[in-house]
Amino acid sequence: MIPQSLRTLIDETRGQRRAEWAGREVWLAKEAWGELAVSLQGAQVLHYLPAGAPDAPETARAAGASPTDTAGAPEGMVAGGWLWVTPTPQALPGAIRGGIPLCWPWFADENTADESPDRSGPMHGPARKAPWRLDAVDEHEEGVELHLSPEERLHGQLVPRAVIQANARRLHVELITEHVGETPVKITGALHSYLAVADAFACRVEGLAGATYLDKLADFAERDQQGELGVRGALDRIYRSNAELCLDDGTRRLRIARQGSNSAVVWHPGDAPPGDTSIEAARHFLCVESANTRLDPVWLVPGAQHLLGTTLSREEGATP
Ligand SMILES: O=P(O)(O)OC[C@H]1O[C@H](O)[C@H](O)[C@@H](O)[C@@H]1O
Predict the structure, then answer these.
(1) pLDDT tens for each residue of 47-90
(2) Residue minimizing CA distance to atom 12 of ligand 1
(3) Which SUPFAM superfamilies match (predicted)?
(4) Half-sphere exposure of 188 toward its Cβ, with a 13 Å CA cutoff?
């Protein structure tokens, strides 16, 4: 579910092109394998829709529906796609709420921003607001692979880069950190996926039963997940888990695999969303994040690399 204005840009795309959306440069693809939109601010995937999905334009047309159906969607938004983007994004230099923001080189706020000099760095680190450049686009019939790096140095000793792969079966995002300095550095971070859902409070996240979690809404109290997770309101949890997850919103079963992550963050603000999003629009996302947090920080030594990844795909055997 994305803003109508972004949908229009994608509809006007044949093949690949660059355009401007909400004051940011975006890279767009509309190909036989599906659709992809990436913002160069933050190297942030904003939209992905594989061909053949029930909400893909050609499938919708075959079923007699409009591919840009606004029925039931909050104002300014259209259904379609696996990711959610707010219809009311902050102006630059603010970050875009939605898609897959890259939180780097730390996850969350000043209390956990171990890498900022005085533990007071910006929430989720500087990478998501920074300008990135597209270093390479590897295009082939089955899909596309993008390589991006920040235009400026974001850290004295660490250099990040992002790899985004999209095809008709899956979306895969990697955030790779290379240590180019002299002394060990501790990092955290996240691929802060805003997944589009029919109703956030009717979602089930499978794969976390029995896992322990830190409840950020209860001062990081440690708890056990009893049974599978049903989301019914506000929650902000860091699960100690590297398991593959499945998000079921009643209309789609999305598999979420993670690489280099032993923290799965599940977040929804309930009926008190941040100022850049209405309550109505917020009912259509659930964040399920591939993360490194205070539970599994990564110590990088000079010359070492760390890869944090996430792969979204349809569940095997499920209808497309
Ligand atoms: O509003 P943002 O800075 O994008 O952060 C949004 C959310 O991100 C994570 O999921 C955290 O666990 C939440 O505590 C936070 O509120």
Answers:
(1) 999 998 766 655 655 655 555 555 678 888 998 899 999 999 99
(2) 236
(3) Galactose mutarotase-like (SSF74650)
(4) 30
User: Pairing state of beta strands 194-196 and 189-191?
Assistant: unpaired
Mutation to probe ligand 1, out of 100, 124, 261 (largest number of atoms < 8 A from CB): 124
How far does the centroid of ligand 1 lie from the alpha carbon of residue 67, in Å? Answer: 31
DSSP 218: G
The b/e string for 181-201 (b: 16+ C-beta within 10 A; e otherwise) is beeebebbbbbbbbbbbeebe
Pocket of ligand 1 (CB under 6 A): 108, 123-124, 216, 236, 265, 267, 274, 287
Beta bridge pairs of residue 134: 148
Give the distance (Å) from ligand 1 centre to CA of residue 108: 6
Nearest alpha carbon, ligand 1 atom 3: 123
User: Which DSSP string do the residues of 82-114 spell out, in sequence order?
Assistant: SB-B-SSPPPTTSPP-BSB-EE-S--SSTTT-T
- Domains contained in the chain, CATH given: 97-314 (2.70.98.10)
At CB < 8 A and 24+ separation, what contacts does 62-71 make? 68/4, 68/7, 68/11, 70/4
* pLDDT per position as a tens digit, 176-223: 999 999 999 999 999 999 999 999 999 999 999 999 999 999 999 999
Tokens 């259509």 -> residue: 284
At CA 3, angle to CA 25 and CA 139, rounded to 5?
Answer: 50
What ipTM score was computed for the predicted complex, to two decimals? 0.97
